[in-house]
C-alpha cells in the first residue's frame, strides 16, 4: 500500500543441515530442539555446545557465546541432559517474518536454576524463571520477527545504527541470562495472535545496548501468549520521518483486522521549525493520518502522549513540562478521532515527582565515569531511560491498557499488582541482568 501523504510531509536445539528450500519449508512447521547429551526426544533435533550458528543449518549458539553440556540420565529423553551457563548466551534460529510461539523448558534434575529471558534486541520476556532441584518449568511466549521488506514493494529505510540490530537480522534470537539450565526449545508459527505494533522514537524503541532501554522492549513481559509486540519505533524519529522511511507503510502491509497501533511521538517533532510545523499543525495532521490509515486496515489505534523529560524545578520539586503543546495536541486528536488515549506524559510526570529530584536520576541513564567500557566521562541523560526506568514506564502503559478497557487486557499476565505511578517500585527491589553489549553513545533524539 502506498500512502498518499499531505504536501508538507517529508518523503523522506541433533545437527541436521538444511538445504535452503528444505529449511524454508521447515520454518513453516516449526522447530523442536533437544539440548545437551543423552537420549534425543522423539521428533526433536539434538543440540550440543558445538552447534554454533551457521547459515547452512540456520540455527545454533550465536555471537560467540558458549555453554557447557550436562548429562543427568533418567528415562525422560527431554530432561536427561541440558546445556548450562552462568553467563549470558544467545541461541538463534533463522525464520521468516511473522509471529511465533516459543516454548522453553528449563530445570535440572539435581540442581537449581534461574533464568532471565530476553528476545531479539533485549525484549524482556521474563525476569526470573526459577526451578528448584529436580523440578522443571515450561513457559511459552509469543514473539514477533520482522523484515525490512514491504510486501507491497520497497523496503524500510534503516538508519546506520539499525543495520546491526538483532531486530532486523531475519533471525529469531533468544538471550538466556542467569544460571540457566536449558533442556528444550520449540518454535511454532502463531498465525492467529493479536499483533500490537509500536510506532515511536527512542523512548519506545528496542535498545540493543546497555544501559539504554525504552518501554517498548519491556512491555512484552506483561503479556501472556496470544499477543505479539512488533516494535517499529526508532531513535530520533518524528511522525514525518517514520512516514518518510516507509515504516508506517511496513506496519500497514502486515496489519490485520483487530491488531493495534500504539503511537507515541513528540520529542523530536517539536524541533521541526517549518512554516507548517507545530503541535496543532503538521503534528496533528500526521497523527490523524496514522489513526485513519490504521482504521482502514481494521486496526485499533491508541494514542500515547510523550514521556516527560526529567526537568525539575528543584525549588518546588515539580517536573516542568518541556514538550510544549505536543502532549495536549495528542490528547485533542484522541478526543476528536474517538480513539483510546494513554496519557503517559501525565503518568511519567507523577512518577518522576514521586521518585524525587535525585532518586529520579536512577530511572535514567545517569552513571559515573567508567561504569561501562570506553566511558571516560559521566553519562547524564534526562530523556533516555535505563532498564529500571523503562520497566516502570511499561507498567504505566499496562495501566493505560486496563483503564481504556482494551480487548488485549485479557492477555495481561496475572502476577503483577495494579501500578500507581505515585508509588513507584523501589530500585532496591529491581533485578536486571545486563546483556553483553553496551554503548556510551547517546541514541538519536532528545
Word description of this protein:
The protein is α+β, with helices and mostly antiparallel strands. 19% of the residues lie in helices and 27% in strands. It contains eight helices and 20 strands. The chain has helices at residues 20-29, 215-218, 239-244, 247-254, 282-296, 326-337, 344-355, 387-403; strands at 31-35, 45-47, 59-62, 68-71, 81-85, 89-94, 98-107, 113-119, 123-131, 136-145, 171-189, 194-200, 227-231, 260-264, 300-304, 312-313, 318-319, 340-342, 364-367, 379-385. The strands form four sheets. Strands 1, 2, 3, 4, 5, 6, 7, 8, 9, 10 and 11 form an eleven-stranded mixed sheet that branches. Strands 13-12-14-15-18 form a five-stranded parallel sheet, with helices on both faces. Helix 5 links the parallel strand 14 and strand 15 (300-304). The radius of gyration is 22 Å and the shape is globular. The two termini are 32 Å apart. Residues 1-29 have low confidence and may be disordered.
Topology:
Layout: H1 20-29, E1 31-35, E2 45-47, E3 59-62, E4 68-71, E5 81-85, E6 89-94, E7 98-107, E8 113-119, E9 123-131, E10 136-145, E11 171-189, E12 194-200, H2 215-218, E13 227-231, H3 239-244, H4 247-254, E14 260-264, H5 282-296, E15 300-304, E16 312-313, E17 318-319, H6 326-337, E18 340-342, H7 344-355, E19 364-367, E20 379-385, H8 387-403
Parallel strand pairs: 1-2, 12-13, 12-14, 14-15, 15-18
Antiparallel strand pairs: 1-11, 3-6, 4-5, 5-11, 6-11, 7-10, 7-11, 8-9, 8-11, 16-17, 19-20
